[in-house]
């Protein structure tokens, strides 16, 4: 009888929804990135993506809040910003994230696009272990998805580090600094060579702000 009463009581109580614990605006940010990227942001098929643990491996969403004064209005009220880092999916050794920004001086959410260099280089051998010459930047492209990304709240910098294969011998990494309401590329490094056990054996800083 006690068991039956307990079961009836539990059934009568309102169900606690996981969504109730989610930060405000997260559903709208999810809808934006799903619409923008389609299957590239299927969130591994999860109906409700959890919030990432502070010291976890980023298999979830994160939300950051900060304020800033833009250069064009240094004496005005600070602009309040909310940055959503959204888990878009994962493979064997890389995790994809998209970023959405909400600013108090704008009504709508903004999908963050990241400038990345388009590189020209050629290998000196069939094993692709050496280059004929240093990579050259032949332009820039924009991407909305970053791999193995993170956000440093102190410096307000987004970083990424994409492994080109599982052992991580070839890779690229970037840094984007928040400035005047946007994330600006400040550094991009790449190691396009394969086979060396030292991941940084032949890396190239192909872009650095001010250089």
TrEMBL record:
<dbReference type="InterPro" id="IPR009560">
    <property type="entry name" value="DUF1176"/>
</dbReference>
<keyword id="KW-0732">Signal</keyword>
<dbReference type="Pfam" id="PF06674">
    <property type="entry name" value="DUF1176"/>
</dbReference>
<feature type="signal peptide">
    <location>
        <begin position="1"/>
        <end position="19"/>
    </location>
</feature>
<protein>
    <submittedName>
        <fullName>DUF1176 domain-containing protein</fullName>
    </submittedName>
</protein>
